[in-house]
Structures are given as C-alpha cells and as structure tokens.
Write the structure tokens for this entry.
Amino acid sequence: MIESDSTRSYLLYAIGEISLVVMSILIALQINNWQNDRNIRKLEIATLGEIQLALIQDTAKINQNLAEHSFKVSNTKKLLDHMNAGAPYEPSLDVLFSIAYRPFFGYNYNIAVYDLVKERGTDIISNKNLRRNIGVYYSQDHSTIRYWLQKLSEIHLSESKRIYPFFVALQEPGKSLRMQPLDYDSVRKRKDITNAIYHFRSLNVAVSNYLGNFKRSTEDLLIEVENELDNLK
C-alpha cells in the first residue's frame, strides 16, 4: 500500500514536471511568434515609410517638371505670336527660341524603392489591395511614363537637329543659352521651321498631359500608403 502511494505520487510529480516543460515550451513559442510578428510589422512600417518618402519626392519632381513644361508652352506661344504677327527681330527672341529648342530632361523618378520591396518580399505589405496597387504603379504607371517621355524626347530631338543649322548657339557666362537666328526674316518665313516650333509646343503640351496623369496616380498611391501607415502605427 505504501509502495502504491509512493508510485502514484511519483507519477503525479512526473506528469506535473512534463506539463510544466510543455507549458514553458508553448509560452516560449508564443513569445517567439509574437516577436517575429512584431519584427515583421516593424519592417512593413519601415518599407511603407520608404515608399511614402519616394512618392513625396517624386511628386515634387513631377510638379517641377510640370512647371518647366508650362513655362515652355507659354514662351513658345509668345514666340509664335511674334513671328505670325510679322514683327521685326528683337534680341529677346533669342531666349524664346532657346526655350522652344530646349530638350526634355530631369525625369529621374524613384523606381529603386520598389526593387527594395521585391527584395524584402512583396508579402511584407499585409494589405492585399495596397500591395496590388503598389505593384501596378511601379510596374505599369512608371513604365508608361518612361516610354512616352522617351518617345516624345526622341521626336523633339529629331526636330531640333533639323532646324539647328538655321541658328547659332550663344552662351555667355552667367546667362541663359540663346539661339540666335542666322537670318530672322528667312526663319520666320520658312514653314518647316515654324511647323517645328508649333510641334515643340504640342510636344510640351503632350508631356504635360502624361505628367498630369502620372501625378494623379502618384498622389492617389501616396494617400493609400499614408492611410495604411496610420492604421499600422
């Protein structure tokens, strides 16, 4: 009887020890999972923060590019109005010719941030709709704007090369580039040159339209990212 009680006590003690070990393991696993989830959430917040910064910077660049093209459109119109009115040559026209002639540049929008997202794994972004929209923005919207900017830039460059022989480029220290006509009256009367200048204006309007669409996509995604950051924090 004494031996039976001793055995029972030992078994209860052993079961208690085993239960304690199992509970300790489960608690340790739970803590580890909690820490992993916490680290993943921190990484998601950091990733979205980097996307947010890239979108803010790109919005500023887009606004700068839009202002540049608006400036070119308005000044090219001034030039065309002067030429179409049959007004005589003025030295200030050299600056207007150079503005119309100026190539497209400065469209270095941030695509590297999406490479970082892919490197970390797109699943790091828990919101499925946001994850999809980020993918569409960087794989489609960025590709579209790059394609059209490159295409329109090539057309502009081709037109520029065609009319360049009729001008001389003047660059004085501390002053803007000027494109002075070799013979203004001849330039004004040549349809191929006036058509090229009209084309320059149309190209700048087209670029502005594409940039306007890209700006709306950028701003829409920025709002989504900022809302998600608010939800996660």
About this structure: Helices lie at 2-84, 93-101, 112-120, 128-163, 184-189, 191-232.
